[in-house]
Amino acid sequence: MASSAAARGIILRFAVVLAAASLAACAQSSVVSNRSALLAPSRQASLQHDSTASRVTKRRVAVTYTPFAPRQHAAGTRLASQGLASFYSEGTRTSSGEKFDANELTAAHPTLPFGTRLRVTNVSTGRSVTVRVNDRGPFVRGRVVDVSYSAARLLGMVGDGVAKVKLDVVQ
Q: Which helix (H) or strand (E) holds 99?
């Protein structure tokens, strides 16, 4: 009987250790996948991509998102939206099929029709620029628009990589 109780105790301890190791492995895999998502290459590249990613993760940012009208009704809407904007400076073709040019005042938006004119205003500086939607994106949660490098430069957001902006449909 004593050996049966000892065996039972050893099996119980082994089960507890195995459960703890499994939980630790699950927690570690989510940390690695979140970090990998931040460091994965994407179109939302600034000139200092790695330092921008680390700066963004070290501060909390409140994002307000007012969705635009569904795609078929978006051309007539004048609704405003607010959130984070990022910029990109590399790529060959846009979703509309035209060649990407970082020197043009263009933007990527998830739902607005191609050709839509959008006024992007940097909330912290008051600077604004009118861009033409010619691409789809951004593909990072919490961001409402990707602008070209030249638009980002005019908005004063190149150094930080992201900026809180207000969007207004102009045309």
A: none
Q: Max Cα separation, the chain?
A: 85
Alpha-carbon Rg of the chain, whole angstroms? Answer: 23
- In whole angstroms, give the CA distance from residue 152 to residue 149: 5
pLDDT in tens, 67-123: 444 444 444 445 678 999 999 888 889 999 999 999 999 999 999 999 999 999 999
Q: Which amino acid is at 85?
A: A
Q: Which of 109, 93, 103 is nearest to 143 (CA)?
A: 109
Return the structure tokens found at 53: 């990613």
DSSP 11-32: HHHHHHHHHHHHHHHHHHHHHH
Facing residues of 87 across strands? Answer: 147
E strands present in 89-135: 106-108, 117-122, 128-135
